[in-house]
Amino acid sequence: MSDKKRILVVEDDEDINELVVYNLKNSGYEVKGALAGKIGMEAIAMFKPDLVLLDIMLPDMDGLEICRKLKSTPEYSGIKVIMLTAKGEDSDIILGLEIGADDYIPKPFSIGVLKARVRASLRQDTVQSSKKIEYGDLSIDIDKHQVIIDEEPIELTVTEFNLLVLMAARPQHVFSREAIINQVKGQNYYVTERSVDVQIVSLRKKLGNYSRLIKTVRGVGYKFENDESI
Question: Are 55 and 11 in contact (CB under 8 A)?
Answer without folding.
Answer: yes
